Amino acid sequence: MLKGICIGALIGTIVTAAGLSLYGYLWGLPYDLYCYGYFPAKEAVDAEIEEYIAQNEASRKYEEEQRKIEEDSEELRKKIAELEEKSAGSSSNSAPVANAQVKPSNPEPEPVQMHHWVFGKTTDSFDKKQTKRCILDAETLVQDTFGSVRPQMMLKQVNNRSIDIRLTIKNKVLGHPQDRDRVRLKFDNEEPFSVSFVGTADSSMDTIFLNSTSKVISKLKTAETLIIEVPFFMEGTRRITFNVSGYSEKCKF
Predict the structure, then answer these.
(1) Residue 29: which region, alpha, beta or left (left: phi > 0; alpha: psi -120 to 50)?
(2) Cα gap 83→99, rounded to integer Å
(3) Which of 5, 191, 202, 247 has its CA 20 to 30 A from that of 91?
(4) What is the DSSP string of 51-92?
């Protein structure tokens, strides 16, 4: 009987020792993982979380701004279309019937409609931030896989600060490494000159911002036509024509 008790005590001692070793191993495992770099430090995790939140906030603000731009542009175009329709109706009603002329059976093709500046001003009700925009659609259409795309140029000013000049061509990748991020501009019959450009904050590939804005704006005030030679990625360069006449009258910056 004494022998059985000793054997049982020995077995109990071995199991207890093994249990304590396993417990100690499990207790020290997270500390070892942290020491050897398997678990990131709390400061690094917090920095990643803050960066993620900042990126989401910047993306949200950009999407909200784009939505406001589209809404303002559409509203301005509707107002201009209504005014043009009223003007055309009043002129046709005032013309005497005796002066009406019969159109020939083979009329000449209608001239291409020129696009004009559309100016708009908005004020944010939250922080009273005032934004002015002047938008112009190009006379040139760019062919795309899904059809034709009309480039657009927009000048934007926030709280009377410096003016940004933005060129957008939907569904296109603008810029090419060989061109070193430069475009060429030609006003009327003047000699072409090149300016550099930068991309957007959200890395949109179909939009660029022109530099040398002071020089470009000074020429916009007196020019009639602007041709921009834009490099397209893997597609060579394209020349986009804008009817920039009336800038000084329309764009009230």
Answers:
(1) alpha
(2) 25
(3) 247
(4) HHHHHHHHHHHHHHHHHHHHHHHHHHHHHHHHHHHHHHHHHH
Q: How far apart are the first and last CA of the chain?
A: 106
d(CA 201, CA 196): 16
> Is the Cβ–Cβ distance between 156 and 195 less than 8 Å?
no
- Cβ atoms 199, 175 nearer than 8 A: yes
Q: Which residues pair with 154 in a beta bridge?
A: 135, 166
Say how far apart CA 70 and CA 61 lie, in whole Å: 14
40 secondary structure, DSSP code: P
pLDDT in tens, 71-91: 777 777 777 777 667 766 655
26-35, 89-98, 127-136, 145-154: range with highest mean pLDDT: 127-136
| pTM of the complete model | 0.55
Rounded distance, CA 120 to CA 118, Å?
Answer: 7
Nearest by Cα to 112 from 152, 140, 84, 71: 140
Instruction: Give the three-state DSSP class for 251.
Output: coil
Cβ proximity of 211 and 105 under 8 Å = no
For 98-122, the DSSP string reads: GG--PPPSSPPPPPPPPP--EEEEE
Residues in the chain: 253
Helix, strand, coil distribution of the chain in percent, nearest 5? 40, 25, 30
Chain position carrying tokens 């784009």: 66
Give the SS3 label for residue 41: coil
Contact 202, 191 (CB under 8 A): no
H/E stretch holding 213: helix 213-220
